[in-house]
Amino acid sequence: MRKPVIIGNWKMHTTAVEATDLLADLKNELAEVTDVEIGVSPPFVYINTARDILKNSNIKLGAQNVYWEPAGAFTGEISAPMLKDSGCDFVIVGHSERRHLMGETDEMVNKKIKALLNTGLIPVFCVGEKLEEREEGTTQTVIRKQVESGLDDIPVEKIKEIIVAYEPVWAIGTGKTATPQQAQEVHSFIRQLIIRLADAAAAEEIRIIYGGSVKPDNIDALMTEPDIDGALVGGASLKADSFAKIVGFKLQ
Ligand code: PGA
Is 235 near ligand 1, meaning CB less than 6 Å away? Predict the structure, then answer.
């Protein structure tokens, strides 16, 4: 059985005070949860604060990006060993905002995933098609290329440690969620790809989560689909009560 995982992606939001309050509220509201793995990914500058607040809690800590070299003259970048050292458990890579606004390529995403696995951090590996690609009927081609390139040259036994996040670009921050059926179709397709890239056991074990306008009122239906193992939540993760409601989803 795959344990469901719900991760908050705070993006470039919160002040230090807001981050501290949100973390303290989440720690409090989610303290009893044992059947769902929970994660939050604040901006880099609040990671040490988050580590201190979340100490001895059931909430895992993540970052939103990483550079693939361990150290060196790379002004402005943060490495996987630094994030490990700062108490992170996972790191989001290949988010569509990084791919499409910051020019992150499949090759860069692949290097980042390798750096994280080598450091003992869990990659939350995002893939997703744009609206025009869905309309042209090329969703599967786009997803296949992103998954194959992102996982290129990664040992079979490591692949199952990764969390894949399917985030259709047209659903991110738009209020337009993919229907549970649309998401399930792509999740199942990704699981089939993992059978080919790794093996059936890895495909059974790997968690594939959905992201794109996930809210308390649509999480239940999404989680009922057999290949949806959780959610990557943007906007609705910035309020403790809405994030807690998402974590408390009910299967329909
Ligand atoms: P959203 O963002 O929930 O605000 O649509 C999701 C994401 O980008 O991870």
Answer: yes
